[in-house]
Amino acid sequence: MENNKINCQEAEKVLNSEILRMTMTIRDYYPELAPFLEEMPGTISDEKKLEITHNQLKTYSESLNSLLTRYILEHPISSK
To answer: What is the pTM for the complete model shown?
Structure first.
């Protein structure tokens, strides 16, 4: 059971790193996309505690990746 918890924590670290990397890429290289960045919404999984789930992190990471990839494909860099 302890290994499962460690694997989950590592997976969340990877997702958080990916989200940070994509967010910084958008802010640094594609500032026109910054208005599309949204705060990660939390859900109340228990009446007393606010928690962001692994699935929410994964969904947010995938949506950032999709936004960035689609924009890059639709707006190729033109050589001058």
So the answer is: 0.73
